Amino acid sequence: MKQHEYQITVKHIADAKGHPSTYDEDLIFTAYNHDDIFKILEYLKQKELTDENSMKSFALGLKLMSEVLLENKEIPLFKEFLPHFIEFIKSLKKL
To answer: How far is 93 from 62, CA to CA, in rounded Å?
Structure first.
């Protein structure tokens, strides 16, 4: 299956107490997805479920998680969760 390719970068800015990060490196990795995450984000933004920053986190997290679930559906934990996740996605598409 052809997939979109993304470079994900996470930079730790501060800890939960507001102290500057002590991490020297960013978390950078390549992720693939069968969907265009930018189009998904635009769709979700139109639904105005929450603020824009939260919607970006939600869309990215959802799509990263979905691809891992689909590619590893034979893992017992994922296999058990997948039907519930699929129902959630169906509900999301009905919005």
So the answer is: 13
